[in-house]
Amino acid sequence: MFKSARIDEIHVVFENCEHIEIPYKDVRYIHLDGISESIWDNNVSNADEFDLSFQKNAKYLRLMIKDKPEYKRIKEHYDITWIEFLRYGEVIERIAIQWVGDNEDINLGQTVKEENGEIDIMVSPN
């Protein structure tokens, strides 16, 4: 069954924790694939209660947005780490994007193309 959720904007989060807010009207296409979920807890303090963290990860991202000056950061640095989906200013979904390679500053799996007034971003392990 396909589940739908209305969103107002997405945030593209970068390696240095900066982010760009993109109103959904500027999104032309978005596709995340190979999504898995991990669960972890760091119980170093041997606490009596668990505080599990859940994280979703995507192996593939394709995002096409309007080419605007406020989105130039995407074209200058290849370091997208997260995509956040927001509704009414609240994050409803946060998905980590696969990082390819050992370079801490550049995701070798990320490509960016500019065409017909749009920015076409892809992150793929291939």
Describe this entry's structure for a reader:
With 126 residues, the chain is mainly β. Helix content is 4%, strand content 51%. The protein has 1 helix and 10 strands. The strands form 2 sheets. It has a 6-stranded mixed β-sheet, with no helix packed on it. A hairpin with a 2-residue loop joins strand 7 (80-87) and strand 8.
Task: Provide key terms for this protein.
four-stranded antiparallel sheet, mainly beta, six-stranded mixed sheet, 126 residues
**What share of the residues does DSSP label as strand, in percent?**
over 45%
H-E order: EEEEEEHEEEE
Q: Can you tell me the residue ranges where pLDDT is under 50 for at least 5 consecutive residues? A: none
Number of extended strands? 10
Provide a compact summary of the structure.
The chain has 126 residues and is mainly β. The protein is built from 1 helix and 10 strands, in the order ββββββαββββ. Strand 9 and strand 10 form a beta hairpin.
Helix/strand layout:
Elements: E1 9-14, E2 19-23, E3 27-33, E4 36-40, E5 53-58, E6 60-66, H1 72-76, E7 80-87, E8 90-97, E9 110-115, E10 118-123
Parallel strand pairs: 5-8
Antiparallel strand pairs: 1-2, 1-7, 3-6, 4-5, 6-10, 7-8, 9-10
